[in-house]
Amino acid sequence: MRKSTVIAPFACLFAFASFLLAQGGPVHRADCILVLKSAHTLTLLSNGQTIKTYKVALGDPKGPKSQAEDKKTPEGTYFVDAKNPSSLFHRALHLSYPNAADRERARKLGVSPGGDIEIHGLPTQYAWMGAAHRAIDWTTGCIAVTNPEIDEIWTYVSVGTPVEIRP
Fold first, then answer.
1. What CATH number does the domain located at 28-166 have?
2. Which of 56, 89, 134, 159 shows the greatest Cβ crowding within 10 Å of its Cβ?
3. Where are the domains of the chain?
């Protein structure tokens, strides 16, 4: 057996371990995203433990979304149903809003529940604002973070990850 054949797998393993250490350790997958509207936070969780918490901007944070164009951020349980790497808002995690309860609420009101709710970054022309974007709730119902933050969140979250949005 040649020496290089034995050493190559260890060299690959060492390089991978070095990469993980340079990145701050292994990336944990989030198994839940918790958004607390009143605190303006988004928390990534893994097995009930906090991975990281981010400050966010919302739409109108008072009350649940009840219809299209009310600019409210919904409340309830959803899941990430798509990842858009080419969003107008840098990157976006699309949420499964409206759920059955949202559709029923809107049906009783005789209105459309709306849709297209995302966790996203900032448009290119406003990316320079960084964390200052959180000074006001400016979205039309989405949950916004900075572009470096959505890049980081992107690495933790898979399609199918549950999202709980609380008042």
1. 2.40.440.10
2. 56
3. 28-166
